[in-house]
Each structure stands twice: as structure tokens, then as C-alpha cells.
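just leaving the lab so this will be short. what follows is a protein written twice so to speak, once as letters and once as C-alpha cells for the fold. can you read through it and tell me how you think this chain folds. thanks a lot i owe you, the record is right below.

___
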Amino acid sequence: MRLPAMSRIRLFVVAGAGICLLLTGCGSNVGDSADTEVVGRWVSDEPGDPHLVLDAEGKVKGSDGCNGINTTYTVEGNVVTLASRISTLRACVGVDTWLSGASTLRISGDEAAVFNRDGEEIGTLVRINS
């Protein structure tokens, strides 16, 4: 049995919409839902201006107060996981380079608890813009 032309068009539109929803995560824009909560400049008031800048493309740039940080990140819920990175290892007198040990950030509003690879909390960052 062949469907009338209008029924075929409706079926095509409904099927296309379903595929679109599947490809976009049931209508949510992954970039908006994940990145808008973490994108911005995250800072500490410690000497050397330790900070991270997370962009919408999943890139991270910053400084531990002495050495540059350049890596990528992923987001799952409120947890940001930083990819492994290679960094310079300059010695900086009077600067605690704790941020160089960051592995994950747990986001709560505009505050991020920073954890090392062992899951120990090593510091806190505050978002100053988004």
C-alpha cells in the first residue's frame, strides 16, 4: 500500500526531526549546556596570579603563577577534567605553583575546587567573568 503524498511528507519531516534530535542530544546544544557553565577566567589571589582560562572550544590556557599551562578539558556534570600536559619547570621564589598539579575542577557556581591526580583538594579558583 502506498501512502498519499501528504503522509509521505509528514513522515519525512517527523523522521528528519527525530534524527536531528538524536544528533544534537535530544535538542540540547552540548556546547551551551556544558561550556557555558565553565567558560571564563578562573583566578586565585595568591602571588604570581595563578589562573586558568577555559574557552568554549575545550581549550585551557593559564599560569600556575610561574609556569604556563596549555591543555584541553572535558566536562561531565559539574566536573572539569584537564588533559595531561607538558609544562616548563621554572623555579619561582615565593610562588606556590600548586595549580600545576591540577587534574580536575569541581564547579559550584563561580567557584571551583581544584583537585590533583590523587583526588586531593589543592586549592580554589573563582570565576571573574564568563
About this structure: The beta strands are 40-43, 51-54, 59-63, 68-76, 79-82, 104-108, 111-115, 121-129.
